[in-house]
Every structure is written in structure tokens, then in C-alpha cells.
Amino acid sequence: MAYAYPNQRRILVPGPQFVDPRTAIHPSGFLPTPFGVINPSFRLPVPPVEVLVPNGPPVFAPVRFALNPAVLIRMDEQRTQSLLQFMAKEGLVPSPEEESKRRDAIVELKKIVVAWVKKVAWQRRLPKNQIASTCATILTYGSYGLGVHGSESDIDALCVGPIYATMANVDILNPFFLQNIDETSWRSLSGVRANIRLLQLVPNLENFQSMLRCIKLWARRRGLYSHLLGFFGGIHLAILSAHICQRHPNASISALISIFFDTFSRWPWPSPVTLQDGSIPYRDVSDGRSFMPIMMPCSPYDWCNTNITRSTFNRIRTEFNRGHNMTRDLGKPDFEWSDLFDPFPFTKRYTRFVRIFLAAPDEDELRDWLGWVKSRFRNLLQKLEEVQGYCDPNPTEYVDHEVAEPNTVFYWGLSPNRSSFTDIDSVKEEFMKSVDNGYQGSACRLELSIVNASQLPKNAQIDWGNGNMSKAYWRISDYIQQRPPVYSQHLPYYFVGYAAAATDRSE
Fold it and tell me: φ, ψ for residue 253 (rounded to 5)?
């Protein structure tokens, strides 16, 4: 009997009016042996065939040859199953043990926050009854809030709690909750509010989550997942995925991914992407730099912040086209999901790179310095576009192990079609003006240079995306994890800091 989804119904379909060795159906079942050359004018008399189909209209990935409906359904299930197996192999879905640890961590974090808020109320000498009723809460957002986190994902969390208030159940979508709130708090809440609204708007949450996990992996592997470097952030990919899910509520995961690339490879940018919601008003795209305008799913329905430039826009479109070419025919016998997620071959694609070297006296200062410089990378990218015409900013963060001080290194690909000469000193001079403007940290290093592919260190001559996190991140993360947390002896769960290790430098 033909494969079908739950809640099926029986229908009669005409027998095939052509003979194709991949889909030919005999009244007694599939033919066990392949055909030879068939006369095109030959017609095999076949009676109608009874098959099971879903009650709702199924959506299939586009194919380039006619198929029997029963074979379409079976093929779609097989592709979906192979995709789920690939996701499990890549660690995109955390184990139950890992999920339990995350939930326990959030519970402990809430205890710490509550203790801290009560301490603030006590320091302000509020009445005892107000101190007792003072409370706060932790709201998760980002990949964890959407339920698309993987084994190596972190937890994005927001603490919500005025100095003294009781917040047992916080409805941050309630307009009354947002009255008289300052701009900083408003922006802090935007990520959580966008997450909640997305989860409300998608018709099939499980399919949306599985699809988004795969799209984020694709973006990371292909070097497109870095908002500060002019590519996508998590919210952009979430809205694009939700857009597809809303318009194809009955599609399987494999079909959704195929439709995703088919849709956005042909999207008439800069026409904006919005979600289906009766409360979303139409707005013109007023920001001239918005190559790919994407509207937030919650009020005030502003455009997602974007750093996309001309170079990164072209790179994204190229990757959309690649994804479409690879997934438009999921029926190919040699199709493999892993091919879609192959890392982008930076060292094979470019012959010259801009080397951006950042260093600081210690890991903490490096983290601050790195964040500050990355927030101004768009200025550097635009300057390189002026002198080179094209620049591909590889988001991977490397570490130069030959340098004693903590450091992070980037290698950005340059167009091979332009002159090999670049006045990098003038580029650095212009970039340093934006970096120095407002920075209040200690003196740190920033170096810019042009290197050939043959000059790249061995750890940078590996295709991007093989690891889930950059080496620089792990270096900082290990620094923190080696030190046990210290809590106040007066207030339980009140976090003070990390204990100093014996290997720490003496100041």
C-alpha cells in the first residue's frame, strides 16, 4: 500500500500515461526490474490506482518530471527522514539530559535574580512587606526562546524586574505593560517580544523549529551568519523561515527548505519580507541602505536592524541560488543533504585576504575590545568596497598562537579581479577614526594587512564552518569555566563573581 500521512483519505488516480523506470506502476505493484528503451508511442493499459493521500492539500518540493502521487508522498517522507537523521548527526537537537541541565540553569538563574532584586530593595530601605513582595523574572529569547537551540548553543536571557514589583506572570505583549517604559528597556524587550510573536504566528511549530535549525546551520556553514559583519542574524533567518511556514502550512520539513531557497532566490529585493498578520501595517522602506528589508513581527513593526552591504548582499543572493539549484530536485538519486551544508571554501575561492588582528592585555579586555571593533566593522567593509569593489568578510574568529597576548584574527576575502595593490594604511587610518570615537577602554592593538592565501596559517587554511564555535570563543569560555562562582555569605544565591585561579596573573 502507498505511504501516506496520518488522517488520510482514499482516492482513485489514473494509471500512468507514460513509462518511466523510476515511477512506473503495475496493477500488482512496482515493477521489480528496470526497463530498457521504450517506444514513446507505446501506451501500457493500466487501470485506475487507489492511493492514500492527506486530508489537507500536501505541498511537495518542486520536481522536473511527472510522478505518481503515491511515489511523491513516499519520496517526500524519505527525504524528510534523511534530513532528520542528518540533524541528529550534526547535533542540531540537544539530548534530554542537556535540556534538563539548561532548565536547571534557568531555575538557578531566577533564584539569583530574585535574591539580587530583594537585596536592592533592602538597600533602598523599603518597608519589609515591599521587600517580601519584590520579585523579578527571567525571559529567554534567541535560539533558546524559539526552541531551535543545538547542543552547543548558549542561552539568551533577559532579566525583567523594576526595583520593587511583583511579576509573577509577565505579558510583555500587553500594551499596558509597555506604558511609561524607557527606550533602553524597550529595546531590551524587543528580542523577547519578537520571539513570542513568531511562535504565535507560525502554523506548525515543530516544522518551523526543525526548518530554522537547518537554515541556521546552512548560514553558519556558508559564512552568512554574522549580523555585525553584514550578513544575517538569528532574527532575520527566523522571520524568513516563518514567512515560508505561513504560506505552506502543510509542507514537510524537506519541502519547506526547498521552497525557502526557491522563494528567496527569486525574491524581488528590495521588496520587504513581512509575516501574515492582520495587525501589521504597510510601510515604505525609507532606509536607503536596506538591501534586504525584513519587518519585525511585533509592534512598533519597525525594520530589523541590518548591516548588509553591496558585497554581502551579492554573497547572500549567490548562496540562495546555490541552495535553490541543489534542492529544487529532491528526487535526484544522488541527492545528499550534507552537500547543502558544505562549508564555504574561503581559501579556494580567494587568493588575497585582509588580515585584521586584535589583541589586548587579558581575556576580559579582549572581549570588550573585540565587541567594540566588530560593532564598527561595517565602516571597514564599506571602505574596502570603495577601494576593491568587493569584500567577503569571513565571520570565523581565529587565534594567532604565536602571539603571547590574547588575540583574535579575521581573514576577509578580496576580489581577485581587481588590482593587487591596496593602500591598506589609508584604509586603516579611516577605520581607526570610527574605532577611536567613544572608546573608553585601555590601550589595545589593531593591525590591518594584506596577505596571500599561501601566507595563511594552517588553522585558517581549513574550510570555514567545521566547528560550531570559533577558537577565540572557546578560549574565552574556557577561561570562565575554570573558575568556580562565588556567592554572598549574607544573601543566598547572590552572585558576587568568579574565584581567582592560581594561574592568574598578579597585577
Answer: -65, -45
The whole-angstrom separation of Cα 207 and Cα 204 is 6
Report pLDDT digits (tens) over 137-154: 888 888 888 888 876 677
Q: How many whole angstroms separate alpha carbon 274 and alpha carbon 282?
A: 9
Contact 34, 21 (CB under 8 A): yes
Nearest alpha carbon to residue 378 among 325, 440, 309: 309
User: Is pLDDT above 60 for 280?
Assistant: yes
Q: In one letter, which amino acid is 399? A: V
Instruction: Enumerate helices (H) and strands (E) in the chain, giving the number of each.
Output: 15, 12
User: In this structure, are strands 407-414 and 391-393 parallel, antiparallel, or unpaired?
Assistant: antiparallel
Distance CA(498)–CA(481), nearest Å, equals 9
CA distance 143 to 92: 11
- Environment class of 96 (CB within 10 Å of its CB; exposed 0-12, middle 13-18, buried 19+): exposed
Residue 471, all three cell numbers? 577558537
Report yes or no: 255 and 60 within 8 Å, Cβ to Cβ.
yes
3-state secondary structure of 450: strand
Of the candidates 255, 233, 231, which has an alpha carbon nearest to the alpha carbon of residue 244? 255
Q: Whole-prediction pTM value?
A: 0.70
Which of the pair, 283 or 356, is modelled with greater confidence? 356
Residue the block writes with cell 587565534: 399
CB 64 within 8 A of CB 329: yes
As a dihedral over the C-alpha atoms of residue 224, residue 374, residue 308, residue 351, rounded to 10 degrees, the angle is -60
Q: What is the dihedral of CA 261, 263, 267, 272, to 10 degrees?
A: -110
Q: What is the 3-state secondary structure (H, E, C) of 400-411?
A: CCCCCCCEEEEE
Using alpha carbons only, give the angle 462, 218, 54 rounded to the nearest 5 degrees. Answer: 150
Residues 6 or more apart whose CB falls under 8 angstroms from that of 276 comprise 201, 246, 247
Cell of 112: 539569583
Give the C-alpha separation, 434 to 87, whole Å: 41
Ramachandran angles phi, psi of 14, nearest 5°: -65, 150
User: For residues 365 and 444, is the Cβ–Cβ distance under 8 A?
Assistant: yes
Alpha-carbon distance values, 106 to 145, 271, 460, 473 (Å): 12, 40, 36, 22
CA dihedral 66, 71, 75, 77 (to 10 degrees): 140
Strand 137-141 relative to strand 445-452: parallel, antiparallel, unpaired?
unpaired
CA 165 to chain centre: 35
Cα 473 to the center of its chain, rounded Å: 17
Beta strands in 222-379 (DSSP E): 352-359
